[in-house]
Design goal:
47% of the residues lie in helices and 15% in strands. It is α/β, with parallel strands linked by helices. Strands 2-5-8-1-9 form a five-stranded parallel sheet. Helix 1 crosses helix 3. The longest helix is centred in the first third of the chain and has 18 residues, at 9-26. It is globular.
Length: 318
């Protein structure tokens, strides 16, 4: 962040409020999901949306990109999808008598990796460098990805035939795993009313790539006390010693809670993190990083049950 750039968290809140207001015009409910996507974007992370078909996962991502005025690309993952179909490949240019690089769809600001678990592991791994390093390497040459950059992946938790479960290394690259549920009865009626007169939906872009990058720099300046860092440490380390957990969360989970809580504070117009920010993000940050012991699962215990108990045991700072 440049020295002459003003740190104004009211400005961040104002922009985020406008984003939410525009999203509410086209998406009924799901504000918590949109919030997680925005937190991921401002933190430089990625998000995995899990839900049955038809709950607006793709529509939400597309609308989000339009409102932020960012370049959007959708990649439909299928069993025959190749890594080159994602990152790009070299093609021979007969006019110039040379090979030139043709960029793949990964070169955009917002990437929707639709049904990511339908592609084989080799293709899934093509996203790893992109998500972690914000770059791709083809034939020994490295190409930076546009900024800002976020991968919004979707998967169907019900249909397992013909799918390839994401390996732990790839799951860990996602900042949050968010479950997108069915709408309530009232929300479903609102959806029907909205679709019945869809022409009335007038969305406007409320930001630019440059403004998003500015907001990302402001998020980095949010203050977090050492006591809250200790609180984050307590939560994450408890997952490694809990008797019901086979595999606990890595230090990456601690970093996610740190950066995510700073982004959430900025969205709320605050220059500092409070313990409730950490609690808010704990479930989505940890639910894909914890593996329960088989005996705990046989007892009907869920990951969310364990996270809830850990949060109750960890003492937040005053």
């Amino acid at each position: 962040m440049s020295e002459d750039e003003e740190i104004n968290f009211d400005y961040v809140k104002q922009i985020c409020d406008e984003i939410f207001a525009q999203m509410k015009k086209a998406v009924i409910g799901k504000i918590d999901v949109i919030e997680y996507i925005l937190i991921s974007l401002l933190s430089g992370g990625h998000v995995l949306l899990e839900g049955v078909p038809g709950v607006a996962k793709t529509y939400m991502a597309n609308t989000f990109a339009k409102i932020l005025n960012l370049e959007f690309k959708r990649i439909q993952f299928t069993p025959d999808l190749l890594p080159a179909d994602i990152v790009g490949t070299y093609i021979y240019d007969q006019n110039k008598n040379e090979f030139r690089f043709r960029k793949g769809p990964i070169f955009a600001n917002i990437i929707l990796a639709d049904e990511i678990n339908r592609a084989p592991p080799k293709t899934q791994s093509a996203l790893l460098e992109s998500m972690q390093e914000k770059q791709v390497t083809v034939e020994g040459t490295t190409y930076p990805l546009p900024e800002p950059f976020i991968v919004i992946a979707t998967q169907n938790p019900i249909e397992l035939e013909g799918t390839y479960p994401l390996p732990e290394a790839q799951l860990d690259r996602f900042m949050f795993r968010v479950f997108v549920d069915y709408p309530t009865g009232d929300e479903e009626v609102e959806i029907l009313e909205l679709k019945n007169d869809e022409a009335k939906i007038e969305l406007k872009a409320v930001t630019t790539a440059q403004q998003i990058k500015q907001m990302q720099r402001m998020v980095n300046k949010v203050h977090i006390r050492r006591e809250i860092m200790e609180y984050i440490k307590d939560i994450v380390t408890k997952t490694r010693t809990d008797p019901q957990i086979l595999l606990g969360a890595s230090p990456r989970a601690s970093i996610v809670l740190l950066t995510g809580s700073k982004a959430y504070a900025a969205i709320k117009g605050r220059s500092f993190v409070i313990p409730d920010d950490v609690k808010k993000l704990a479930y989505a940050s940890l639910n894909h990083r914890i593996i329960l012991k088989p005996e705990a699962e046989l007892e009907g215990i869920t990951v969310d049950d364990v996270i809830k108990r850990i949060l109750e045991e960890a003492s937040p700072p005053s």
